[in-house]
Amino acid sequence: MPDSTAPDQAPASADLNSTVSGRAVPGPAVLVLEDGRRFVGRSYGSTGQTLGEVVFATGMTGYQETLTDPSYAGQIVLMTAPHVGNTGMNDDDMESRQIWVAGFIVREPARLASNFRATRTLDDDLEAQGIVGISGIDTRAVTRHIRSLGAMKSGIFSGELFGLSDSEQLERVLSGAAMRGRNLSLEVSTVEPFSIPAQGERIGSVAVLDLGVKTSTLNYLAERGFEVLVLPQSVTAEHVLSLKPSALFFSNGPGDPAASDAHVTLLQEVLRAGIPYFGICFGNQLLGRALGFRTYKLPFGHRGINQPVLDKSTGRIEITSQNHGFAVDMPIEGIHESRAGFGRVEVSHYSLNDQVVEGIRCLDINASSVQYHPEAASGPHDANHLFDRFRDVVLASQSAVAGETK
Amino acid sequence: MPKRDDINSVLVIGSGPIVIGQACEFDYSGTQACRVLREEGVRVILVNSNPATIMTDPDFADATYIEPITAEILETIIAKERPDAILPTLGGQTALNAAIQLHERGILKKYDVELIGASFDAINKGEDRMIFKQLVLDAGADVARSFIARTVDEAVGYADDLGYPLVVRPSFTMGGLGSGFAYTEVELRRIVTDGLHHSPTTEVLLEESILGWKEYELEMMRDTADNTVVVCSIENVDPVGVHTGDSITVAPALTLTDREFQHLRDISIDIIRAVGVDTGGCNIQFAINPVDGRVIVIEMNPRVSRSSALASKATGFPIAKIAAKLSLGYRLDEIPNDITGVTPASFEPTLDYVVVKVPRFAFEKFPAADQRLTTTMKSVGEAMAIGRSYASALQKALRSLEKRGSSFHWGDETRTVDELLTIAEIPTDGRIVTVQQALRRGATIEQVHAATKIDPWFIDQIVLINEIADQVAAADRLDRDIMILAKDHGFSDAQIGELRGFGEADVRTVRHILGVRPVFKTVDTCAGEFPALTPYHYSSYDAETEVIASDRRKVVILGSGPNRIGQGVEFDYSCVHASFALSEAGYETIMINCNPETVSTDYDTSDRLYFEPLTLEDVLEVIYAESQSGELVGVVVQLGGQTALSLARGLEAAGIPILGTTPDAIDLAEERGLFSKILGDAGLLAPRNGTAIDFAGAVVVAEEIGYPVLVRPSYVLGGRGMEIVYDSPSLADYFTRMAGQGIIGAGHPLLVDRFLDDAIEIDVDAIYDGHELYIGGVMEHIEEAGIHSGDSSCTLPPVTLGRAEIDRVREATLGIARGIGVKGLLNVQFAIGAGVLYVLEANPRASRTVPFVAKALGITLAKAAALIMVGTTIAELKAEGKLPLIDGSRVPIESPVAVKEAVLPFNRFRTPEGLAVDSILGPEMRSTGEVMGIDRDFPRAFAKSQLAAYGGIPLSGTVFVSVSDRDKRAIILPMLRLQQLGYEIAATIGTAEVLQRNGIRARVVTKFSEKTGEHDVSIVELIRREEIQIVINTPGGSTARADGYEIRAAAVAGDLPLFTTIAELSAAVASIDSIRDGFEVTSLQEYATARTALL
């Protein structure tokens, strides 16, 4: 379950706020990439084997949020920041109930956690949750490799499996699932629906399709006065409509949007019912598909908290938190006709780094979405106002509906 | 919004002389700004009084004024040039304060000129503490509780409320000048008195203590469309209580969670928006309580700062360059990121490495100064290092300081844990090494944290370094794994050698046999996300190197490392000029340096930049990496000061070609015996001299040649340890003080020279190509011999030397150049005493005066020397127009006179008791910077130099004079003239008697030591009461020594003009008439045109 409320644990009280983890010298580990390239380092976290798509994340802060972001399910995440774990782990900064990454690559793991909020070390959590990692490798070389050749299948082998032959390890890596065509929603989504009450004055309810939603997103929605109804990813359109929500929201999440036909169909049905929609990340890709556009896999994705995005309507730049390997295929200029019959559509935001679509707005129906993360966590709060915009849109649609019924 | 079309000319204000708190980072930012503005087609008018800077090179502006940065002079320039706008945010606090004055005096309005970069309103909001405090509170952020006091008594009252200790901060000062922690009422009274004096608005802020909190800085940029980015976060390893300029700092911040970091970012954006900085950068400082995370905003600077230079070098994001573009109206997304070429500047750099900056102090120059680090900045320079981990970056940074004992070591440590922890409690230079020793001796992280408040994470990293050291020491043999482990944690070959009990060279040999060499990574702003176009590299013991092969002919230029007294921006000027000249001549230039403040470490300056320590090991590895492709023509060592020169031998031994003067020839100049022979062969005289390696030997030499003697260690720069000694007991005392510094001994003998009293000292900068000598300039010192040339003021051309004397100097220089075998630059110091020309010393390298010569006469020696080093001849340089046909030994009479004046840092230092440190000049250099005054004659030029150095000579008031007996005769005429000019004169009894008998009215003032009772007012009290405007005091015999100190200390504390030599006094008196006339201004370009017309 995503943590929907603040944990009720006492903060760390020690004067020093530091917890020293064990100093046993870790054994060897190896990162093997699908093209056969190998990087030998030290075992980190749990030992054993893990397989997944290797991606790099460039944020210098926020490893806890990254690790617990469900969008990273199935991926072996490399942190380009050299020191990771310095501030330990705490309960407040969990973006979901657990760590989701398939594996973790860092150059310099912290030996000690130093922060007044830290309740445990990162090592503690990695070990407790069985996350296989590797440290002490040339992370920049791996990053440059992925940057030039694209994200690829990979595996980390440590403990007894470190001793497997190179070819055996490579074979295991190649046997792993490819990210393209992969649907991971079931793995990360809540099984049972649950709700979070609105904070302050309730303006209505929002049905949230949990494709891997983050705690911060739910909190921001509740703070804006929404009663938040979190639904499993397997829910039907009939069920959604039966809840009579004021709006629908699709969260971020892992996997290839091209493999999520059911969610696309659901979205189309709800949109046809005239319910306002807002989506983030995966929710942006699914809106794109629902409108009849294609999605495609980026060579190595956008994963960082320093990504400049232009808001075309205001001309302002937002420094955004991003984590996506797929994007919507739509020309960033001009107004386009939805091939699925939803009227006119335009790109509302795009990346200033590589002109990738970062947001879509429908002009004839009440639907919009962004590819990046306005909830940040981790990352800058520049795009937080999108939650306000969503609230305003919902309020406006309510008064429009009220006007019509009068 | 695209570029504004209504700005066609901009006046850029520089930061003036290098002082503590304001160093060559503003040369870097100003140079970038001038370049950008000109690229944008804007006419650039530049004013800066500092001739040593690269920005004042006439190539960087359309009109370059080396003039004092005062409102009057600026008005004169504005009236003449009529710029559309003034850019004051790249010249430090000096430029910002000048802009405020221009606004307040209505000059901006009068000439209809706009401030760009930051409006007056924004500057005021950022700088005025009360306005700023309110603005922070409005942004929903917190500030320390505080009160403004305008009198000392008011301050004492507020202190009862805030409790001790508390912080005192004067408004509108830089580098924390005048601020500090007060633990008691006595201290509070002293600091507030000082602070009120230094604050232009006579206000100080009293604040609750946040001592020991974690300290952070964010570097921000904002454009006219309200787009804001955080360029860099910087964390101070030394917690609150130590000025950020004196702290070890690290980028990015390493001990913040994302939530905390984003909170700081949110506050910063709110503040920059509220202050209204909308076309440039600013930095904001924060304190965080480590116990509960409470955040306090300490201050902001609405301008480019020392930290922004550091942030630019740390991230590859050129803040000053972008700030200049923003000031023309561009938006961040309209400016490309140079490094990637494809992404815009509207992003936040992300680092996949760690940057550590360490301060360089010069307390050895001010032994009386309080060495405790406080909120007043005391360091004179800094070194930066880049590593793939904090441990490696820290170790690289510490060895970049080139200072004995600055690196971690594992030798004998006899002090106990308790002793070490007690020492570490008080922040001082080198505390980090004390911490390392304490941990080595068994102190726990908790104990060290309790003593220092340094974050446990940083302490643990030192524990880690000690653990690695133990492993290196305990390993059965130095195998590949242990070698890589040590190198990955930043251990130098020398440190590994220390741990294993053998020499640095042996470690290197073993390492190379094991195939362990560093790779070079790239600073790319984006952690590898996009390909980088700029080869800006640092070393790391990682898997993959990023050095791109090239088939060009390469020249490596060694920079001069961290600024220190005696080695500063002047050397960077020469390195940068060499790089430009060699690049233009078709060479691929490769710069190695570790000083983040400099132009040389701008990725735009050379073809390739290696940000590395200037040690033999680090330099050899860069050269090895570059030798893998193309052709290494050689290494330039003669431009980077003693730092670069001291590597020549080692490089040569490793088979690396040294360009220009050979290491053997360099030794000829340094080695006393060999040099005497050269002088003998050339028929030249040196003062009688000898060498000694211990006290006994020194006494023998001194007695033989006769006291007074000038003593100095060999192979040092800036006159380190240079003193005039009058008798054997003083010589014994000298050896006691030098003991343990390792600068005198076998191989490094002490040089003992007969000291020439009353001689005129002359400096010559020249170049020699093996056949022809070319004089850059003959500079005449204003003070007599005995004062270090770096602290002495001098004139170019000389103003009292005859043609025959100059010809003798020229001939002598030629003889020395030929004798040594110079190929490139040569600096010779001469003295003329009783008509005899003596050679004091010769240095076959760039001198501090190379840029001064370039600005005064338009002769660019550094560029010429660089080309001579690669084989060009002087004849060719003349033919190509790269050198004027007539050299600097013959200056036409119509030429202007330039005066260089030293700027001394005495007012930055106090003794532990809070008194000013002594300020007399001597053979050991203590100035941090210099200014130049240039005008049609000596009095005018001198007056400008004084105006630029300290605000100039007051035109009325009381002159206090107290001189030694030997100077009494010489003061009669100057004092008579001062009286005629309307000054009142006060003097101590002995001096007053001489004046009275010569018809000069002088009020007798009690000496400090002769004060008899409460009502007897001594000179020191008169100075404190501001009843004295000018102080003249020459040091005399030992009885008067204590009084002299009291007088000079009071003068320094009161910021009064202080003359300690008769020569400088006479020059000042001669200049007063010209000040009363007012000044005219002439640009270097106008002087150049006039020079061409003369030929």
TrEMBL record, chain B:
Cofactor: how and how many bound: Binds 4 Mg(2+) or Mn(2+) ions per subunit.
Pfam families found in the cross-reference section: CPSase_L_D1, CPSase_L_D2, CPSase_L_D3, MGS
Gene: carB
Residues noted as binding Mg(2+) 4 in the record, renumbered to the chain: E841, N843
GO MF annotations in UniProt: ATP binding; carbamoyl-phosphate synthase (ammonia) activity; carbamoyl-phosphate synthase (glutamine-hydrolyzing) activity; metal ion binding
Binding residues annotated for Mg(2+) 1, in chain numbering: Q285, E299
Protein name, UniProt field: Carbamoyl phosphate synthase large chain
Annotated GO biological process: 'de novo' UMP biosynthetic process; glutamine metabolic process; L-arginine biosynthetic process
